[in-house]
Amino acid sequence: MMQNPSVDEVISNWLPEPKELASRLIEKYGQPNEVSANMLIWYNNGPWKRTILHNEELPHKFPKPHNDKLENVIDYQVPPVKASDLDMFDGSVIFDRTAGEMWARCESEAMNMLALNLANDIVTGKRNIEDARMEYGKQAMAHMIGQSAPYTESLQFEVPHGGTADPDQPVMKAA
Q1: What is the per-residue pLDDT across 31-65, written as a single tens digit (0 to 9) for each?
Q2: Which of 25, 40, 88, 147 is most buried, with most CB under 10 Å away?
Q3: Contact, 41 vs 34, CB < 8 A?
């Protein structure tokens, strides 16, 4: 009978950045709930509905060059009229209207938290796209040099737990 490999065995061959982040996440949240050759998944960890770490580095240049590898997911309803605003704000803020989820994919939890906080500001009308992008740069820089950056430290809004799915409306009657 084949035995499943341990998390340590799986990540031993990973790229350096995801491998290092995997160790930090395991230290913080414990063993992941799911393990595959290229992905670790935690459910209901900290403020997150789901955390997914990929053994993949997607180059991203906003707000500075880095590699996206970590996704942090929350329940969140994005009104369709705000969809293009979020797309213009940051291509690494992703949402699924049907499932009622929004997530950020970046290099760290702090940067994902920052992106989601600013996405919420856009959805709620607190900030426009340009202001949110400028604030992203300011908060990211403050975080990198060890200064206070509240948007990188915690979600600044109440996160719903369920009830955010939008199954839409039928255009045809069922046969």
Answers
A1: 999 999 999 999 999 999 999 999 999 888 888 88
A2: 40
A3: yes
Instruction: Supply the DSSP string of 102-147, one letter for each residue.
Output: EEEEESSHHHHHHHHHHHHHHHTTSS-HHHHHHHHHHHHHHHHTT-
DSSP category for residue 33: S
Strand order through the sheet with 66-75: 34-36, 39-43, 50-60, 66-75, 101-106, 93-96
Identify residue 28 by its one-letter amino acid code.
K
Nearest to 140 by CA among 95, 107, 94: 107
Q: What is the DSSP letter of 58?
A: E
C-beta separation of 10 from 35 below 8 A: yes
